[in-house]
Amino acid sequence: MDKLHFVDPSAFVAIAALLGLLIGSFLNVVIHRIPIMLENNFRHECACLDLPDDQAPPQVQRFNLVVPRSACPHCGHAISAWENIPLISWLILRGRCRGCKTPISARYPLVELLTAMISGWIAWRYGASLQSAGALLFAWSLIALVFIDADTSLLPDDLTLPLVWLGLLFNLGGGFVPLPDAVIGAMVGYLSLWSVYWLFKLVTGKEGMGYGDFKLLAALGAWLGWKMIPVIILLSSVAGATLGIIMILLARHGMGKPMPFGPYLGIAGFMAMHWGAPLLSWYGFA
């Protein structure tokens, strides 16, 4: 897609990086709250199942991405606007709550910094173009999914399914791949892991992965096309095996303990978007 040549490249990169800091702060909220929202909804639905037909469902405290206001989980100190400035507030507060001095996880500024760096890099690579906007949405979604799955072993439909439709929508005009490649990519992405899931279950009687992995790979196929599916599976498998061996050797992960596959799929999907084409060319598939 054509770049907007009247936009200064350096300014665009700086603006994208600054926007990335702000988006990273929001992603921290998404990563923390969406699993809680899903659990609250599940508990509410379970409670409603046992109610008589003539009894009203119990009232649920409002909890979403906007309310209640962010607060320290230890002392309840409400976080003010100046305490919520991406990256800067954490440094000023020296990584501690202003109310009770409890340490604040370094992951919050790391997510903000990571999002800013990736956003700036995408802006530098694609310039001021529609392709840059698509790559940013893609990367931001993957960051949220990677961290949620790493924390909870969940890949919420609220994120994976919109990512599928956004990929197909973006490729209506051939954003990254032609639309037929995107549609086939979504189908191949879902069915490939679905087939592995059922084959593994038939052989072992156990579930090797969750349905969220199918949907995430379908989303990656919708954005990147069917040709990238083998690349993504290969990269994610190598990354998962390598990190898994390292964690086992460091005694941080038991041999029988399941490991979420979503983070490796997300990392592989990001790598495939930006470096997958040379890999395909290397093997003669481009």
Polypeptide structure, described:
The protein has 286 residues and is mainly α. The chain is built from nine helices and no strands. It is globular. The two termini are 19 Å apart. The model has no long low-confidence stretch (mean pLDDT 87).
Short description:
The chain has 286 residues and is mainly α. It is 65% helix and 0% strand. The chain is globular.
Task: Tell me the layout of helices and strands.
Layout lengths: L8 H41 L38 H5 L14 H20 L3 H23 L4 H14 L8 H26 L6 H14 L4 H21 L12 H21 L4
Helix pairs in contact: 1-3, 1-4, 3-4, 4-5, 4-9, 5-7, 6-7, 7-9, 8-9
Mean pLDDT: 87
> What is the beta-strand fraction?
under 5%
The proportion of residues forming helix, as a percent range, comes to 55-70%
Which class best fits the helix and strand makeup?
Answer: mainly alpha
Based on the model shown, name its key terms.
65% helix; globular; 9 helices; 286 residues; single chain; mainly alpha; 0% strand
